[in-house]
Amino acid sequence: MTATEQQASSPVAVVTGASSGIGAATARGLAAAGYRVVLTARRKERIDALAAEITEAGQQAEAYVLDVTDRAAVDAFAERFPTLDVVVNNAGGALGADPVATGDPDEWRRMYETNVIGTLHVTQALLPALTASGDGTVVVVSSTAGHGTYEGGAGYVAAKHAEHVLAETLRLEIVGSPVRVIEIAPGLVKTEEFALTRFHGDPEKAAKVYAGVAAPLTADDVADTITWAVTRPSHVNIDLLVVRPRAQASNYKLHREG
Ligand code: NAP
């Protein structure tokens, strides 16, 4: 098979937030599973480098700079796809950990914009192409924060609850169409940037999130879960998959050594 024939025959997966952490690992996982992956994020150099790494490994990847909060940009991106097999809505994250009494409304807004409106933009724009494929999959990477709250988490928790509701409602609305909606809700995952971003670049505060936890989930663990869910036969819909490290029995019960 020529490279062009291979490209034409491979299923295509778009991954948002593919410049780091879970999104980057998911791009690697889906590429290894035979997908042509389209890596999107705001930081061009990071997705370019990852696309090159995947291509050098003999798999298929391309990079496209995209801010999911920019609807016009998302619509322009979607025009590239007459049909599409998978979209992984992963771009997002937390900002701050203040109580409701003192939380920054601007940070709440930004979290809602990225996690919820970003997922809405991308899903709306790509749904026609996913439907046209005859076998599409929407993945929403929410969080266990989308299923229970904790002190200091309300802004992020509210956004992730909304993302969960988006996934659940979409599944109800499009039943009968050839598109699955899969929600993956990870617990504590140690990625290079998530906690740093949350604590505005403070490495000490970020390190405390994982302090004493023997084995938090890794980005690869979550990517493995996403890849498994996506590669089930198309009539099998993993509605919601909660994945935590063994040391975390609930949002509240995290075992720390020492
Ligand atoms: P991360 O390493 O901080 O990655 C976040 C990704 O989102 C980056 O690639 C970032 O890329 C992208 N992003 C942020 N804002 C964006 C925007 N406006 N447009 C496009 N891309 C944007 O975090 P992670 O740990 O991998 O988390 C990935 C997802 O899993 C998030 O939705 C997060 O809420 C969720 N999650 C994480 C954990 C955890 O403990 N780490 C647990 C549960 C759920 P650019 O900055 O290059 O745009």
TrEMBL record:
<comment type="similarity">
    <text>Belongs to the short-chain dehydrogenases/reductases (SDR) family.</text>
</comment>
<protein>
    <submittedName>
        <fullName>SDR family oxidoreductase</fullName>
    </submittedName>
</protein>
<dbReference type="InterPro" id="IPR036291">
    <property type="entry name" value="NAD(P)-bd_dom_sf"/>
</dbReference>
<dbReference type="InterPro" id="IPR002347">
    <property type="entry name" value="SDR_fam"/>
</dbReference>
<dbReference type="Pfam" id="PF00106">
    <property type="entry name" value="adh_short"/>
</dbReference>
<feature type="domain" description="Ketoreductase">
    <location>
        <begin position="11"/>
        <end position="192"/>
    </location>
</feature>
<dbReference type="GO" id="GO:0016616">
    <property type="term" value="F:oxidoreductase activity, acting on the CH-OH group of donors, NAD or NADP as acceptor"/>
</dbReference>
<dbReference type="InterPro" id="IPR057326">
    <property type="entry name" value="KR_dom"/>
</dbReference>
<keyword id="KW-0560">Oxidoreductase</keyword>
